[in-house]
Amino acid sequence: MRLEGKKVAVLLAEGFEDLEYWVTVMRLQEEGAEVITIGPDTEPVWGKNALQAQADVTADEVDASGLDGVVIPGGWAPDKLRRYPEILNLVRGVHERGKVVGIICHGGLVAISAGIVDGARATGSLGIKDDLENAGATWVDEAAFREGNLVWGRVVPDIPDFCRELVAALESF
Fold first, then answer.
1. What kind and span of H or E run contains 57?
2. Cα separations (Å) of 51 from 6, 46, 159?
3. Residues 130, 136, 142, 148: is their CA dihedral positive or negative?
4. What pLDDT was estimated at residue 173?
5. Active-site annotation holds for 95
6. Cα–Cα–Cα angle for 27, 147, 154, nearest 5°?
7. If I label 20, which of 8, 72, 134, 155 is the partner at 20 to 30 A Cα–Cα?
């Protein structure tokens, strides 16, 4: 198991993209990572496609220094998550420590609000291309890639590519 001993947080809120959350969580677990789900609260929430999930803890209960990475799935959840300073502080804290930040689809909205995309190559849903560029990122239309400690994925069909890049990045840090 390539990620034995690694601890990775995955962000969650109402309207998350079901596959981007669940497939990524399962892939990380398959590689032996300890996965914790973090949300604004610990109430059950529904994904865009009617799957349910629940955060284990809130962001104010987690110290970024104890994480090897954080993943920001897309869907409508990122627009909600970006409103919580403790979520943004956690993402920024993981990034500032040089740990892995995985961002797929609309997850880039949280990365923008955390102030970590300026000067980076970035991808995601075409719906946030202008947002990323306005935040100082350079848009790249690729399925998935790594830019320093940022791992980017475009959309749901690109989840396998995103997970490959994410696992490789976590393994190397």
1. strand 57-58
2. 26, 6, 17
3. negative
4. 84
5. no
6. 55
7. 134
The string of pLDDT tens digits covering residues 3-36 is 999 999 999 999 999 999 999 999 999 999 999 9
Q: CB within 8 A of 22, min separation 6: which ones?
A: 51, 53
- Percent of the chain predicted with pLDDT > 90: 99
Domain borders along the chain are 7-172
Question: Do 17 and 157 meet the contact criterion of CB atoms below 8 Å apart?
Answer: no
* pLDDT per residue as tens digits for the range 69-98: 999 999 999 999 999 999 999 999 999 999
Among residues 81, 106, 110, 135, which one is catalytic?
106
Domain 7-172 has CATH 3.10.450.540: no
